[in-house]
Amino acid sequence: MANAVADMTDEWADPRVVLAFYRDAGVDEAIEDAAVDRYRLSAAQKSAAPAARSPAPTAPPRDAPREPSRAPLAAPQLMPQVPLQSPATVTDARQAAAAATTLDALRDAIAAFDGCALKHTAKSTVFADGNPQAALMIVGEAPGADEDRLGKPFVGVSGQLLDRIFAAIGYDRSNFYITNILPWRPPGNRSPTAAEIATCMPFVERHIALVKPKVLVFAGGVAAKALLNTTEGIMRLRGRWFDYRADANMPAIVAMPTFHPAFLLRSPAQKREAWRDMLAIKQRLAELTSQ
To answer: pLDDT tens digit string along 156-170?
Structure first.
């Protein structure tokens, strides 16, 4: 036992081992015992302070025993940073989307697009599901774990709730069409960044333009704010009708934001408001399809 303690003491005597421990623990800044108000320091004091706080190490005496050499610690492996958005990337996305004249061509264009780093962390490119000839099109946020695994949108627990909600007004995937603003799952189901949304937006805009639905439903605040180009939250947007244009040369499509089913799973009290949205959507669909 004494030998084990002595070995541990010898190991921790190595400052590189101590630094590695602090690095792995997430320590990335040295904190002094006393707080320093750097706003009150003059330029000369600022330049002199590090020297005063960190005296130069003295050389060991010549007869001091040398510490046995140790292999240098490996540097932490960092993931390469991939730019998620640049003007050239968005331009490439717009050109690829505009060149697609059919849904199959758009699917192929998205699969071939490498301008969004999410593609490299996702398992699947999730395009769409349902009937592309339907009058109703639903646009959600991004695939989750189940959607990434199966390659279809809204197939997990929240997707099952969405199916039940629309079944209550007489709609299923044979008479509605569904997609997301992002075709790839963000790692850990985190919210997509503004850069990721901007990069993928030309594809979803082209998607809507090719389907030409009579009614659009934006499921959740992320999709609603992105497609309506607004900063208002879903609590203010839901239940209201908007005119949406996927293309400036096309007529407007009526669109209603509503709660994402994942939100309703967390906040079941909001199902009452979601039901009101469904009744309004059903009525508008009946009016437009009877014309």
So the answer is: 999 999 999 999 999
Give the whole-angstrom CA distance, residue 258 versus residue 277: 7
Beta-carbon neighbour count of residue 36 at 10 Å?
A: 12
pLDDT computed for residue 39 by the predictor: 58
Contact 256, 281 (CB under 8 A): yes
- If one compares 28 and 203, the residue with the highest pLDDT of the two is 203
Strands 242-244 and 176-180: unpaired
Angle at 180 between CA 176 and CA 183, to 5 degrees: 130
**Over residues 84-98, mean pLDDT:** 82
Between 12 and 150, the more confident residue is 150
* Residue 218: Cβ within 10 Å count: 28
Q: Show Cβ contacts of residue 59 under 8 Å, excluding neighbours closer than 6 positions.
A: none
How far is it, in rounded angstroms, from Cα 281 to Cα 264? 18
Q: Is the pLDDT of residue 59 over 90?
A: no
Instruction: Of 114, 102, 166, give the one whose Cα is nearest residue 140.
Output: 166
Given a cut of 80, whether residue 114 has pLDDT beyond it is yes
Edge to edge, the sheet with strand 176-180 lists 129-130, 176-180, 136-140, 215-219, 253-258, 242-244
Q: What is the pTM of this model?
A: 0.70
- Orientation angle between helical segments 157-167 and 271-289, nearest 10 degrees: 50
**Phi and psi angles of residue 120, each rounded to the nearest 5 degrees, phi first:** -85, -10
Under 8 Å CB-to-CB from 16, ≥6 apart: which residues? Answer: 70, 72, 73
Type of residue numbered 86: S
User: Does residue 225 contact residue 209 with C-beta atoms inside 8 Å?
Assistant: no
The one-character DSSP state at 140 is E
CB proximity list for 79: less than 8 A, separation 6 or greater: none
